[in-house]
Amino acid sequence: MRRLAGLLVCLLLPILPLRAQTLSSAAKKAAGAITSDGVKHRIYVIADDSMGGRDTPSRGLDLTAEYVASEFKRFGLKPAGDEGGYLQRYPIQMSKIDPANSTVEFTQNTGTKITISFNRGAFTLFGSAPKTPVAGSLVLLGGVVDSAGLASVQATDVKDKMVFWLADQAKVQGIAQRVVRRILSLGAKNISLVSNRDSASFAKRVGAQGQPSMGSRAGLYIAEVSEAAIVEQVPEAAGQFSQIRAATSIVIAPLPEWEAKITIKDSSWMTSAPNTVGVLEGSDPALKKEYVVFSAHMDHIGMASSGGQCTAKGDDGICNGADDDGSGTVGVMELAKAYTQTGARPKRSMVFMTVSGEEKGLLGSEFFADHPTVPLDHVVADLNMDMIGRNWEDTIAVIGREHSDLGQTLDGIAHAHPELRMTPIGDRWPEENIYFRSDHYNFAKRGVPILFFTSGLHPDYHQASDSPEKIGYEKEARLLRLVYFLGQKVANTAEKPKWNPESYAKIVKPTP
Predict the structure, then answer these.
(1) Per-residue pLDDT tens digits for 29-44
(2) Which of these CATH numbers, 3.40.50.2000, 3.40.630.10, 3.40.50.2300, 3.40.50.1860, describes 19-92+270-507?
(3) What is the DSSP string of 440-451?
(4) pTM for the complete prediction?
(5) C-alpha distances in angstroms, 210 versus 118, 130, 299?
(6) I want to staple 442 with a disulfide (CB 3.0 to 4.6 A). Which of 38, 78, 124, 369 is the partner?
Protein backbone atom coordinates (compact mmCIF):
# COMPACT_ATOMS: atom_id res chain seq x y z
CA MET A 1 0.00 0.00 0.00
CA ARG A 2 2.84 2.35 0.86
CA ARG A 3 4.52 1.74 -2.51
CA LEU A 4 1.20 2.35 -4.35
CA ALA A 5 0.58 5.55 -2.40
CA GLY A 6 4.09 6.74 -3.19
CA LEU A 7 3.55 6.00 -6.87
CA LEU A 8 0.29 7.98 -6.87
CA VAL A 9 2.01 10.94 -5.24
CA CYS A 10 4.70 10.89 -7.90
CA LEU A 11 2.10 10.74 -10.66
CA LEU A 12 0.12 13.65 -9.20
CA LEU A 13 3.07 15.94 -8.60
CA PRO A 14 3.23 17.30 -12.18
CA ILE A 15 -0.47 18.24 -11.99
CA LEU A 16 -0.53 20.00 -8.64
CA PRO A 17 1.39 23.15 -9.68
CA LEU A 18 -1.19 23.71 -12.42
CA ARG A 19 -4.05 23.59 -9.95
CA ALA A 20 -2.54 25.70 -7.20
CA GLN A 21 -2.26 29.46 -7.51
CA THR A 22 0.13 30.71 -4.83
CA LEU A 23 -1.01 34.32 -5.12
CA SER A 24 -1.07 36.86 -2.37
CA SER A 25 -4.46 37.90 -1.06
CA ALA A 26 -3.94 41.31 -2.71
CA ALA A 27 -3.25 39.70 -6.11
CA LYS A 28 -6.36 37.52 -5.77
CA LYS A 29 -8.46 40.49 -4.73
CA ALA A 30 -7.27 42.47 -7.77
CA ALA A 31 -9.23 40.15 -10.06
CA GLY A 32 -12.34 41.77 -8.61
CA ALA A 33 -11.37 45.03 -10.33
CA ILE A 34 -12.68 43.38 -13.51
CA THR A 35 -16.42 43.98 -13.40
CA SER A 36 -19.38 43.61 -15.75
CA ASP A 37 -20.11 47.33 -15.24
CA GLY A 38 -16.56 48.19 -16.30
CA VAL A 39 -16.81 45.98 -19.38
CA LYS A 40 -20.16 47.54 -20.31
CA HIS A 41 -18.98 51.12 -19.88
CA ARG A 42 -15.90 50.62 -22.06
CA ILE A 43 -17.73 48.75 -24.82
CA TYR A 44 -20.27 51.54 -25.07
CA VAL A 45 -17.37 53.99 -25.50
CA ILE A 46 -15.53 51.95 -28.13
CA ALA A 47 -18.65 50.90 -30.06
CA ASP A 48 -20.22 54.36 -30.01
CA ASP A 49 -21.42 55.83 -33.29
CA SER A 50 -18.84 58.61 -32.91
CA MET A 51 -16.10 56.04 -33.64
CA GLY A 52 -17.64 55.45 -37.08
CA GLY A 53 -16.97 51.71 -37.12
CA ARG A 54 -13.20 52.07 -36.45
CA ASP A 55 -12.08 51.31 -40.00
CA THR A 56 -8.33 51.18 -40.73
CA PRO A 57 -7.38 53.95 -41.18
CA SER A 58 -10.00 56.42 -39.93
CA ARG A 59 -10.56 59.23 -37.47
CA GLY A 60 -12.69 56.87 -35.38
CA LEU A 61 -9.82 54.41 -35.12
CA ASP A 62 -7.50 57.22 -34.01
CA LEU A 63 -10.05 58.29 -31.38
CA THR A 64 -10.23 54.70 -30.12
CA ALA A 65 -6.44 54.47 -29.86
CA GLU A 66 -6.34 57.78 -27.98
CA TYR A 67 -8.99 56.52 -25.55
CA VAL A 68 -7.04 53.30 -24.90
CA ALA A 69 -3.83 55.30 -24.45
CA SER A 70 -5.51 57.63 -21.96
CA GLU A 71 -6.64 54.64 -19.90
CA PHE A 72 -3.17 53.10 -20.01
CA LYS A 73 -1.79 56.39 -18.73
CA ARG A 74 -4.42 56.54 -15.99
CA PHE A 75 -3.49 53.02 -14.86
CA GLY A 76 0.18 54.02 -14.68
CA LEU A 77 1.49 51.82 -17.49
CA LYS A 78 4.83 52.71 -19.03
CA PRO A 79 4.47 54.01 -22.62
CA ALA A 80 5.89 51.57 -25.17
CA GLY A 81 5.02 53.24 -28.46
CA ASP A 82 6.79 55.81 -30.59
CA GLU A 83 8.85 58.65 -29.11
CA GLY A 84 7.90 58.02 -25.49
CA GLY A 85 4.15 57.73 -26.16
CA TYR A 86 1.65 54.89 -26.13
CA LEU A 87 0.96 54.93 -29.88
CA GLN A 88 3.00 53.01 -32.42
CA ARG A 89 2.04 54.12 -35.93
CA TYR A 90 2.70 52.11 -39.07
CA PRO A 91 2.55 53.21 -42.73
CA ILE A 92 -0.38 52.41 -44.99
CA GLN A 93 -0.76 52.96 -48.69
CA MET A 94 -4.19 54.25 -49.64
CA SER A 95 -5.69 54.23 -53.10
CA LYS A 96 -8.73 55.51 -54.92
CA ILE A 97 -9.98 53.75 -58.03
CA ASP A 98 -10.88 55.56 -61.24
CA PRO A 99 -14.01 53.52 -62.10
CA ALA A 100 -14.58 55.03 -65.54
CA ASN A 101 -11.14 53.89 -66.74
CA SER A 102 -11.08 50.51 -64.99
CA THR A 103 -12.45 47.49 -66.84
CA VAL A 104 -12.90 43.74 -67.01
CA GLU A 105 -12.70 42.56 -70.62
CA PHE A 106 -13.56 39.20 -72.14
CA THR A 107 -12.28 38.74 -75.71
CA GLN A 108 -13.09 35.79 -77.97
CA ASN A 109 -10.68 34.73 -80.71
CA THR A 110 -13.47 35.39 -83.25
CA GLY A 111 -13.33 39.08 -82.35
CA THR A 112 -16.31 39.22 -79.94
CA LYS A 113 -15.48 41.50 -76.99
CA ILE A 114 -17.30 42.14 -73.71
CA THR A 115 -16.21 45.24 -71.79
CA ILE A 116 -17.48 45.72 -68.22
CA SER A 117 -16.75 49.12 -66.71
CA PHE A 118 -16.18 49.58 -62.98
CA ASN A 119 -18.51 52.56 -62.99
CA ARG A 120 -21.46 50.23 -63.61
CA GLY A 121 -20.85 46.48 -63.79
CA ALA A 122 -17.87 45.62 -61.58
CA PHE A 123 -16.13 46.57 -58.34
CA THR A 124 -13.07 45.65 -56.31
CA LEU A 125 -14.10 42.98 -53.83
CA PHE A 126 -10.73 42.54 -52.12
CA GLY A 127 -7.06 43.36 -52.40
CA SER A 128 -4.58 45.76 -53.92
CA ALA A 129 -5.19 47.02 -57.44
CA PRO A 130 -2.74 45.39 -59.87
CA LYS A 131 -0.26 47.92 -61.22
CA THR A 132 -0.43 46.45 -64.71
CA PRO A 133 -3.30 44.61 -66.45
CA VAL A 134 -3.72 40.94 -65.51
CA ALA A 135 -4.69 38.70 -68.44
CA GLY A 136 -4.93 35.07 -69.41
CA SER A 137 -7.10 32.31 -70.80
CA LEU A 138 -10.57 32.14 -69.20
CA VAL A 139 -11.78 29.34 -66.93
CA LEU A 140 -15.24 29.26 -65.33
CA LEU A 141 -15.67 27.70 -61.89
CA GLY A 142 -19.11 26.80 -60.55
CA GLY A 143 -21.59 24.16 -59.51
CA VAL A 144 -21.26 22.79 -55.98
CA VAL A 145 -18.00 24.35 -54.81
CA ASP A 146 -17.30 22.54 -51.55
CA SER A 147 -14.21 21.14 -49.84
CA ALA A 148 -14.38 17.80 -51.66
CA GLY A 149 -14.86 19.52 -55.00
CA LEU A 150 -11.98 21.90 -54.39
CA ALA A 151 -9.69 18.99 -53.59
CA SER A 152 -10.42 17.56 -57.03
CA VAL A 153 -9.22 20.69 -58.86
CA GLN A 154 -5.77 20.17 -60.37
CA ALA A 155 -3.03 22.64 -61.30
CA THR A 156 -3.51 21.75 -64.95
CA ASP A 157 -7.08 23.09 -64.70
CA VAL A 158 -6.16 26.61 -63.57
CA LYS A 159 -2.41 27.26 -63.84
CA ASP A 160 -1.73 30.63 -65.51
CA LYS A 161 -5.48 31.03 -66.11
CA MET A 162 -7.97 33.78 -65.22
CA VAL A 163 -10.56 31.96 -63.08
CA PHE A 164 -14.04 33.46 -62.75
CA TRP A 165 -16.20 31.82 -60.08
CA LEU A 166 -19.93 31.79 -60.80
CA ALA A 167 -20.69 32.45 -57.16
CA ASP A 168 -24.09 32.21 -55.52
CA GLN A 169 -24.02 35.27 -53.27
CA ALA A 170 -26.05 33.52 -50.57
CA LYS A 171 -23.45 30.73 -50.25
CA VAL A 172 -20.13 32.56 -50.61
CA GLN A 173 -19.53 33.52 -46.96
CA GLY A 174 -18.49 30.14 -45.56
CA ILE A 175 -16.32 28.89 -48.43
CA ALA A 176 -14.81 31.99 -50.08
CA GLN A 177 -11.42 31.97 -48.33
CA ARG A 178 -10.89 28.28 -49.03
CA VAL A 179 -11.80 28.73 -52.69
CA VAL A 180 -9.39 31.63 -53.15
CA ARG A 181 -6.54 29.87 -51.31
CA ARG A 182 -6.98 26.65 -53.26
CA ILE A 183 -7.22 28.19 -56.73
CA LEU A 184 -4.31 30.57 -56.24
CA SER A 185 -2.15 27.85 -54.68
CA LEU A 186 -2.55 25.89 -57.92
CA GLY A 187 -1.02 28.74 -59.91
CA ALA A 188 -3.99 30.68 -61.26
CA LYS A 189 -3.17 34.24 -62.35
CA ASN A 190 -6.32 35.56 -60.71
CA ILE A 191 -9.64 34.49 -59.26
CA SER A 192 -12.62 36.82 -59.40
CA LEU A 193 -16.38 36.47 -59.09
CA VAL A 194 -19.26 36.54 -61.54
CA SER A 195 -22.05 37.14 -59.04
CA ASN A 196 -25.81 37.08 -58.89
CA ARG A 197 -25.87 39.76 -56.16
CA ASP A 198 -29.15 41.72 -56.27
CA SER A 199 -29.03 44.87 -58.38
CA ALA A 200 -29.54 47.31 -55.51
CA SER A 201 -26.72 45.82 -53.44
CA PHE A 202 -24.44 45.66 -56.47
CA ALA A 203 -25.11 49.30 -57.40
CA LYS A 204 -24.32 50.34 -53.82
CA ARG A 205 -20.96 48.59 -53.91
CA VAL A 206 -20.15 50.08 -57.31
CA GLY A 207 -21.04 53.56 -56.09
CA ALA A 208 -18.82 53.20 -53.03
CA GLN A 209 -15.69 52.82 -55.18
CA GLY A 210 -15.18 56.55 -55.13
CA GLN A 211 -14.18 56.22 -51.47
CA PRO A 212 -10.47 55.83 -50.59
CA SER A 213 -9.55 52.27 -49.70
CA MET A 214 -6.55 50.37 -48.45
CA GLY A 215 -5.11 47.44 -50.34
CA SER A 216 -4.72 44.29 -48.26
CA ARG A 217 -1.85 42.25 -49.64
CA ALA A 218 0.21 42.93 -52.72
CA GLY A 219 -0.38 40.28 -55.34
CA LEU A 220 -3.94 39.43 -54.28
CA TYR A 221 -6.77 41.10 -56.14
CA ILE A 222 -10.39 39.96 -56.51
CA ALA A 223 -13.00 41.72 -58.63
CA GLU A 224 -16.72 41.08 -58.60
CA VAL A 225 -18.51 41.28 -61.97
CA SER A 226 -22.25 41.43 -62.47
CA GLU A 227 -23.59 38.39 -64.27
CA ALA A 228 -26.42 40.54 -65.59
CA ALA A 229 -23.92 42.98 -67.13
CA ILE A 230 -22.29 40.14 -69.09
CA VAL A 231 -25.59 38.66 -70.24
CA GLU A 232 -26.74 42.11 -71.35
CA GLN A 233 -23.90 42.16 -73.92
CA VAL A 234 -23.91 38.44 -74.78
CA PRO A 235 -27.42 37.02 -74.15
CA GLU A 236 -26.40 33.48 -75.11
CA ALA A 237 -24.11 33.37 -72.05
CA ALA A 238 -27.21 33.12 -69.84
CA GLY A 239 -27.79 29.49 -70.80
CA GLN A 240 -24.24 28.41 -70.03
CA PHE A 241 -24.24 30.28 -66.70
CA SER A 242 -27.54 28.64 -65.72
CA GLN A 243 -26.24 25.17 -66.64
CA ILE A 244 -23.10 25.61 -64.55
CA ARG A 245 -25.03 26.97 -61.55
CA ALA A 246 -27.45 24.03 -61.69
CA ALA A 247 -24.69 21.39 -61.66
CA THR A 248 -24.75 18.98 -58.70
CA SER A 249 -20.95 18.79 -58.44
CA ILE A 250 -18.06 21.18 -58.97
CA VAL A 251 -17.58 22.41 -62.54
CA ILE A 252 -14.29 23.56 -64.08
CA ALA A 253 -15.07 24.87 -67.56
CA PRO A 254 -12.01 26.01 -69.58
CA LEU A 255 -12.85 28.42 -72.40
CA PRO A 256 -9.59 28.51 -74.40
CA GLU A 257 -11.18 30.62 -77.11
CA TRP A 258 -11.73 33.42 -74.57
CA GLU A 259 -9.21 35.67 -72.82
CA ALA A 260 -9.98 37.72 -69.72
CA LYS A 261 -8.18 40.91 -68.75
CA ILE A 262 -8.54 43.12 -65.66
CA THR A 263 -7.28 46.70 -65.94
CA ILE A 264 -7.41 48.97 -62.88
CA LYS A 265 -6.59 52.68 -62.91
CA ASP A 266 -6.18 54.40 -59.56
CA SER A 267 -4.28 57.02 -57.59
CA SER A 268 -2.41 56.31 -54.34
CA TRP A 269 -0.88 58.07 -51.32
CA MET A 270 0.60 57.20 -47.92
CA THR A 271 -0.99 57.55 -44.47
CA SER A 272 -0.69 55.64 -41.16
CA ALA A 273 -2.65 53.78 -38.48
CA PRO A 274 -2.04 53.19 -34.75
CA ASN A 275 -1.25 50.39 -32.37
CA THR A 276 -1.47 51.19 -28.64
CA VAL A 277 1.14 49.68 -26.31
CA GLY A 278 1.68 49.98 -22.55
CA VAL A 279 3.93 48.01 -20.18
CA LEU A 280 3.70 47.11 -16.51
CA GLU A 281 7.22 46.38 -15.30
CA GLY A 282 7.61 43.10 -13.42
CA SER A 283 8.59 42.90 -9.76
CA ASP A 284 11.44 40.39 -10.09
CA PRO A 285 14.88 41.88 -10.97
CA ALA A 286 15.63 39.08 -13.45
CA LEU A 287 12.21 37.99 -14.73
CA LYS A 288 11.06 41.56 -15.40
CA LYS A 289 13.20 41.40 -18.54
CA GLU A 290 10.69 38.89 -19.92
CA TYR A 291 7.13 39.70 -21.03
CA VAL A 292 3.62 38.31 -21.18
CA VAL A 293 1.53 40.04 -23.88
CA PHE A 294 -2.23 40.61 -23.79
CA SER A 295 -3.49 41.56 -27.25
CA ALA A 296 -6.69 42.38 -29.14
CA HIS A 297 -7.54 44.30 -32.29
CA MET A 298 -9.34 47.62 -31.84
CA ASP A 299 -10.26 48.14 -35.51
CA HIS A 300 -13.46 47.07 -37.23
CA ILE A 301 -14.81 47.48 -40.79
CA GLY A 302 -16.26 50.99 -40.81
CA MET A 303 -19.59 51.87 -42.38
CA ALA A 304 -21.86 50.20 -44.91
CA SER A 305 -21.44 53.22 -47.16
CA SER A 306 -17.68 52.61 -47.37
CA GLY A 307 -18.19 49.60 -49.61
CA GLY A 308 -16.54 47.20 -47.18
CA GLN A 309 -17.95 43.95 -45.82
CA CYS A 310 -20.37 45.70 -43.48
CA THR A 311 -24.07 45.28 -44.23
CA ALA A 312 -26.52 47.82 -42.78
CA LYS A 313 -29.62 45.59 -42.52
CA GLY A 314 -31.86 48.61 -42.00
CA ASP A 315 -29.78 50.15 -39.22
CA ASP A 316 -27.82 53.41 -39.33
CA GLY A 317 -25.08 51.90 -41.50
CA ILE A 318 -22.37 52.18 -38.83
CA CYS A 319 -20.77 48.82 -38.11
CA ASN A 320 -19.82 49.45 -34.49
CA GLY A 321 -18.16 46.08 -33.86
CA ALA A 322 -19.15 45.78 -30.21
CA ASP A 323 -18.10 42.13 -30.13
CA ASP A 324 -15.65 42.26 -33.07
CA ASP A 325 -13.47 43.31 -31.42
CA GLY A 326 -14.71 45.89 -28.95
CA SER A 327 -15.03 43.00 -26.49
CA GLY A 328 -11.37 42.01 -26.80
CA THR A 329 -10.13 45.60 -26.72
CA VAL A 330 -12.08 46.21 -23.53
CA GLY A 331 -10.60 42.97 -22.20
CA VAL A 332 -7.07 44.31 -22.58
CA MET A 333 -8.00 47.49 -20.71
CA GLU A 334 -9.80 45.67 -17.91
CA LEU A 335 -6.82 43.35 -17.46
CA ALA A 336 -4.48 46.35 -17.34
CA LYS A 337 -6.69 47.85 -14.62
CA ALA A 338 -6.57 44.63 -12.60
CA TYR A 339 -2.81 44.13 -12.86
CA THR A 340 -2.11 47.69 -11.73
CA GLN A 341 -4.04 47.23 -8.48
CA THR A 342 -1.96 47.33 -5.30
CA GLY A 343 -0.19 44.01 -4.76
CA ALA A 344 -1.11 42.53 -8.16
CA ARG A 345 2.12 43.19 -10.08
CA PRO A 346 3.66 39.83 -11.09
CA LYS A 347 7.32 38.89 -11.51
CA ARG A 348 7.46 39.14 -15.29
CA SER A 349 6.56 42.33 -17.12
CA MET A 350 3.17 42.60 -18.81
CA VAL A 351 2.52 44.16 -22.23
CA PHE A 352 -0.99 45.44 -22.94
CA MET A 353 -1.52 46.01 -26.64
CA THR A 354 -4.41 46.91 -28.91
CA VAL A 355 -3.57 46.68 -32.60
CA SER A 356 -5.32 47.87 -35.73
CA GLY A 357 -5.54 46.61 -39.30
CA GLU A 358 -6.60 43.11 -38.23
CA GLU A 359 -9.57 43.25 -40.59
CA LYS A 360 -7.22 44.25 -43.43
CA GLY A 361 -4.76 41.38 -43.02
CA LEU A 362 -3.26 41.47 -39.47
CA LEU A 363 -1.34 44.60 -40.41
CA GLY A 364 -0.84 46.18 -36.99
CA SER A 365 0.34 43.04 -35.23
CA GLU A 366 2.62 42.21 -38.16
CA PHE A 367 4.19 45.67 -37.93
CA PHE A 368 4.68 45.28 -34.17
CA ALA A 369 6.27 41.86 -34.67
CA ASP A 370 8.61 43.34 -37.29
CA HIS A 371 9.29 46.48 -35.18
CA PRO A 372 8.80 45.33 -31.57
CA THR A 373 8.99 47.93 -28.82
CA VAL A 374 10.01 45.21 -26.33
CA PRO A 375 12.46 42.42 -27.30
CA LEU A 376 10.35 39.81 -29.08
CA ASP A 377 12.71 37.00 -28.09
CA HIS A 378 11.95 37.90 -24.45
CA VAL A 379 8.17 37.54 -24.91
CA VAL A 380 7.17 34.25 -23.26
CA ALA A 381 3.47 34.20 -24.27
CA ASP A 382 0.77 36.09 -26.14
CA LEU A 383 -2.80 35.80 -24.84
CA ASN A 384 -5.00 37.14 -27.63
CA MET A 385 -8.74 37.92 -27.48
CA ASP A 386 -11.15 38.44 -30.38
CA MET A 387 -14.96 38.29 -30.08
CA ILE A 388 -15.29 37.16 -26.46
CA GLY A 389 -18.62 38.78 -25.52
CA ARG A 390 -21.32 36.60 -27.06
CA ASN A 391 -22.62 33.02 -27.41
CA TRP A 392 -21.93 30.50 -24.63
CA GLU A 393 -22.38 31.65 -21.03
CA ASP A 394 -19.94 29.25 -19.41
CA THR A 395 -17.61 28.14 -22.21
CA ILE A 396 -14.76 29.73 -24.16
CA ALA A 397 -13.04 28.33 -27.24
CA VAL A 398 -9.27 28.50 -26.86
CA ILE A 399 -7.38 28.15 -30.12
CA GLY A 400 -3.80 26.84 -30.02
CA ARG A 401 -4.08 25.04 -26.69
CA GLU A 402 -2.63 21.84 -28.19
CA HIS A 403 0.50 23.56 -29.50
CA SER A 404 2.15 24.35 -26.14
CA ASP A 405 1.82 23.61 -22.44
CA LEU A 406 -0.19 26.83 -22.06
CA GLY A 407 -3.31 24.74 -22.69
CA GLN A 408 -2.53 22.50 -19.73
CA THR A 409 -1.76 25.53 -17.58
CA LEU A 410 -5.11 27.08 -18.52
CA ASP A 411 -6.98 23.89 -17.62
CA GLY A 412 -5.31 23.94 -14.22
CA ILE A 413 -6.36 27.54 -13.65
CA ALA A 414 -9.96 26.83 -14.67
CA HIS A 415 -10.00 23.83 -12.31
CA ALA A 416 -8.65 25.97 -9.47
CA HIS A 417 -11.34 28.65 -9.99
CA PRO A 418 -14.72 26.90 -10.29
CA GLU A 419 -16.38 30.10 -9.06
CA LEU A 420 -15.69 31.61 -12.49
CA ARG A 421 -17.89 29.00 -14.20
CA MET A 422 -15.80 29.15 -17.34
CA THR A 423 -14.79 25.97 -19.19
CA PRO A 424 -12.04 26.20 -21.84
CA ILE A 425 -12.59 24.00 -24.87
CA GLY A 426 -10.61 23.41 -28.04
CA ASP A 427 -11.05 24.66 -31.59
CA ARG A 428 -14.69 24.09 -32.65
CA TRP A 429 -13.99 25.12 -36.25
CA PRO A 430 -10.74 23.44 -37.42
CA GLU A 431 -11.80 23.70 -41.07
CA GLU A 432 -11.72 27.51 -40.80
CA ASN A 433 -7.98 27.63 -39.94
CA ILE A 434 -8.67 30.23 -37.24
CA TYR A 435 -5.21 29.73 -35.76
CA PHE A 436 -3.71 31.49 -38.77
CA ARG A 437 -6.30 34.28 -39.00
CA SER A 438 -5.90 36.53 -35.95
CA ASP A 439 -3.16 38.66 -34.47
CA HIS A 440 -1.63 35.96 -32.27
CA TYR A 441 -0.29 34.28 -35.43
CA ASN A 442 2.25 37.06 -35.95
CA PHE A 443 3.66 36.14 -32.52
CA ALA A 444 3.38 32.37 -32.99
CA LYS A 445 5.27 32.23 -36.27
CA ARG A 446 8.11 34.10 -34.57
CA GLY A 447 8.35 31.53 -31.80
CA VAL A 448 6.05 32.92 -29.09
CA PRO A 449 3.62 30.39 -27.53
CA ILE A 450 0.04 31.67 -27.77
CA LEU A 451 -3.53 31.12 -26.69
CA PHE A 452 -6.40 32.71 -28.60
CA PHE A 453 -9.68 33.22 -26.74
CA THR A 454 -12.90 33.53 -28.77
CA SER A 455 -16.61 32.84 -28.41
CA GLY A 456 -16.95 32.41 -32.15
CA LEU A 457 -19.16 33.92 -34.84
CA HIS A 458 -22.84 34.88 -34.67
CA PRO A 459 -25.43 36.32 -37.11
CA ASP A 460 -24.33 39.88 -36.29
CA TYR A 461 -20.75 39.26 -37.46
CA HIS A 462 -19.67 42.16 -39.72
CA GLN A 463 -23.14 43.65 -39.55
CA ALA A 464 -24.37 46.99 -38.24
CA SER A 465 -26.32 44.91 -35.72
CA ASP A 466 -23.14 43.95 -33.79
CA SER A 467 -24.18 46.41 -31.11
CA PRO A 468 -23.30 46.94 -27.42
CA GLU A 469 -26.60 45.84 -25.87
CA LYS A 470 -26.03 42.28 -27.15
CA ILE A 471 -22.81 41.71 -25.22
CA GLY A 472 -22.89 39.34 -22.25
CA TYR A 473 -21.10 41.64 -19.83
CA GLU A 474 -21.19 39.33 -16.82
CA LYS A 475 -19.92 36.42 -18.94
CA GLU A 476 -17.07 38.51 -20.33
CA ALA A 477 -16.05 39.71 -16.87
CA ARG A 478 -15.82 36.10 -15.64
CA LEU A 479 -13.73 35.13 -18.65
CA LEU A 480 -11.37 38.06 -18.14
CA ARG A 481 -10.84 37.04 -14.52
CA LEU A 482 -9.86 33.59 -15.81
CA VAL A 483 -7.37 35.22 -18.20
CA TYR A 484 -6.11 37.37 -15.32
CA PHE A 485 -5.33 34.32 -13.18
CA LEU A 486 -3.74 32.59 -16.17
CA GLY A 487 -1.53 35.62 -16.78
CA GLN A 488 -0.48 35.63 -13.13
CA LYS A 489 0.49 31.97 -13.38
CA VAL A 490 2.52 32.45 -16.56
CA ALA A 491 4.18 35.62 -15.26
CA ASN A 492 5.13 34.18 -11.88
CA THR A 493 6.30 30.68 -12.85
CA ALA A 494 10.08 30.37 -13.20
CA GLU A 495 9.86 28.17 -16.31
CA LYS A 496 8.68 29.69 -19.57
CA PRO A 497 5.81 28.12 -21.50
CA LYS A 498 7.04 25.35 -23.79
CA TRP A 499 6.07 24.52 -27.37
CA ASN A 500 4.98 21.09 -28.47
CA PRO A 501 8.02 20.18 -30.67
CA GLU A 502 5.87 19.01 -33.60
CA SER A 503 3.85 22.23 -33.51
CA TYR A 504 6.99 24.35 -33.31
CA ALA A 505 8.37 22.70 -36.43
CA LYS A 506 5.10 23.26 -38.28
CA ILE A 507 4.23 26.83 -37.19
CA VAL A 508 7.39 28.75 -36.36
CA LYS A 509 8.96 30.36 -39.41
CA PRO A 510 12.74 30.85 -39.74
CA THR A 511 13.87 34.44 -39.26
CA PRO A 512 14.95 35.89 -42.65
Answers:
(1) 999 999 999 999 999 9
(2) 3.40.630.10
(3) THHHHTTT--EE
(4) 0.79
(5) 11, 17, 22
(6) 369
